[in-house]
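Per your request, structure below.
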């Protein structure tokens, strides 16, 4: 199996056509090759994709931030400071003086209140992050409000652990948008949503220059940024999905950073004195989502069998070499309550026995929607090969991430192979998507991963709700360990790996930041020798 997987990686790399050479990058510009085909919208109230949130993390200021090297250290960004009432229900934020939007408008508490209200009122994919505090379209303007230009008040519905509330405001929904500019482009009461899909209304260190879907994204430095202008005056991100093409561009000096090199390319550039590697453990998980609408996947024995039909060691050692470790529970290592035991390994005979117990000794046919990038396709092909050994005919349906995600979010898949990153650094971020689903109907308002896979986790939903009110850290951690064990046993997920991100850079590039989450990768500190 190791040889088969290695062959798949090599074959994919050799099939990639080289790109035309470009001029060397300017000294004051950062040029990256990055697979950005998941970009759907540039609106912080609607974005829920890896690339979009990395974009937002570099172009919008959020209310709260945290130290990338010690996520327990939370600090103010737009919110300079805050107080929590004795009953735990009211958060009062002091908004920092002197921040201006790129438009020239002053940033005030009214902008911060509008930004949070807008997330709830638009009710797009990330709205659940704020919705879990009891905010609705009917009450949000009363419960999130500016009392003066520098004071933002937020009233939650239950006495949650304060860190849970604050961590949520470090996520994309905590981005502050320019109320005046957004409402200038409002149409038919859409709160500027259509305009914001392709435009910018922030105060961050970089400003949107142009987005050409499927091709590139370019930013310019905000020279008046309140916390200091970036050294790089431009950031140009080229949508290059092929790892071999990224390597070629990097070694020629046509780009400064390659973001998606695969195992073969990483091994090759390690010997290049002009290239250096930067790595960071991430909270992102690779997993399979199994639709419970599928007659075969809804059988408990089948779900368990599939967990024994992944060559975890082979994929980590070859396809993901250096970029992932086996991890099978829904909380990444490093989170409060993370369960780091991995009970499943490749066992064809065990899987066959389970399939026979399900009345499927001769196997079955099923499809898997797969992002058509090198690593994901190689993982899918490895899984296809091992499943075939148990009689399962897996058809891979490749597509751009935007296509596969859209289908997945509409519950139109059999199996989806994907990467899930936490929205904030509290364990509830993953518990509330893998183990929580209060309404499994097709028209539900909350659409976590359990919902996407048409799974009703039963009593686990109430257990997740209870865990966020537990203020004793040890007790709370034990509750999450119990939830992870239950999802491992019965859930419609084959959780496989925790990601390590590696960026390959030209030797003259300094201070590029990879953070613990996908939206904490920062460009503003980059310099070039």
């Amino acid at each position: 199996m190791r040889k088969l997987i290695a062959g798949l990686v090599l074959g994919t790399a050799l099939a990639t056509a080289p790109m035309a050479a470009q001029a060397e990058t300017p000294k004051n510009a950062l040029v990256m090759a990055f697979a950005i085909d998941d970009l759907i919208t540039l609106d912080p109230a609607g974005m829920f994709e890896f690339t979009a949130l990395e974009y937002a993390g570099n172009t919008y200021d959020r209310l709260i931030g945290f130290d990338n090297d010690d996520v327990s250290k939370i600090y103010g960004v737009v919110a300079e400071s805050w107080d929590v009432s004795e009953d735990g229900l009211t958060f009062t934020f002091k908004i920092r003086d002197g921040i201006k939007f790129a438009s020239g408008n002053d940033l005030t508490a009214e902008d911060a209140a509008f930004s949070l209200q807008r997330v709830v009122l638009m009710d797009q994919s990330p709205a659940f992050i704020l919705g879990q505090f009891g905010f609705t379209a009917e009450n949000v303007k009363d419960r999130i409000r500016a009392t003066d230009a520098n004071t933002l008040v937020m009233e939650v519905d239950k006495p949650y652990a304060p860190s849970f509330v604050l961590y949520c405001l470090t996520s994309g929904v905590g981005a502050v948008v320019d109320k005046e500019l957004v409402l200038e482009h409002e149409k038919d009461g859409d709160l500027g949503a259509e305009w914001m899909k392709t435009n910018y209304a922030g105060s961050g260190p970089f400003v949107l220059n142009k987005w050409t879907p499927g091709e590139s994204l370019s930013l310019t430095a905000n020279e008046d940024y309140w916390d200091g202008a970036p050294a790089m005056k431009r950031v140009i991100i080229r949508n290059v999905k092929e790892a071999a093409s990224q390597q070629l561009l990097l070694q020629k000096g046509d780009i400064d950073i390659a973001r998606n090199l695969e195992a073969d390319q990483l091994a090759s550039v390690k010997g290049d004195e002009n290239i250096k590697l930067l790595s960071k453990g991430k909270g992102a998980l690779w997993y399979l989502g199994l639709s419970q609408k599928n007659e075969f996947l809804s059988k408990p024995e089948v779900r368990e069998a599939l967990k024994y039909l992944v060559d975890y060691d082979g994929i980590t050692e070859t396809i993901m070499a250096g970029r992932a470790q086996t991890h099978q529970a829904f909380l990444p290592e490093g989170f409060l309550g993370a369960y780091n035991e991995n009970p499943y390994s490749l066992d064809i005979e065990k899987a066959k026995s389970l399939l026979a117990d399900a009345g499927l000794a001769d196997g079955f046919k099923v499809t898997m929607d797969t992002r058509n990038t090198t690593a994901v396709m190689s993982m899918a092909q490895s899984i296809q090969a091992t499943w075939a050994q148990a009689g399962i005919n897996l058809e891979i349906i490749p597509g751009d991430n935007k296509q596969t995600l859209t289908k997945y979010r509409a519950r139109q898949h059999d199996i989806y192979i994907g990467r899930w990153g936490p929205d904030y650094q509290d364990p509830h971020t993953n518990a509330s998507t893998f183990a929580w689903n209060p309404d499994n109907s097709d028209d539900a308002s909350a659409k976590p991963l359990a919902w996407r896979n048409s799974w009703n986790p039963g009593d686990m939903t109430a257990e997740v709700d209870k865990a966020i009110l537990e203020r004793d850290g040890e007790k709370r951690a034990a509750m999450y360990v119990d939830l992870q064990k239950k999802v491992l046993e019965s859930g419609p997920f084959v959780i496989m790996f925790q990601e390590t991100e590696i960026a390959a850079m030209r030797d003259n590039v300094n201070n590029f930041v990879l953070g613990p989450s996908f939206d904490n990768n920062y460009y503003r500190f980059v310099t070039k020798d």
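The longest helix spans residues 473-490.

Regards,
D.
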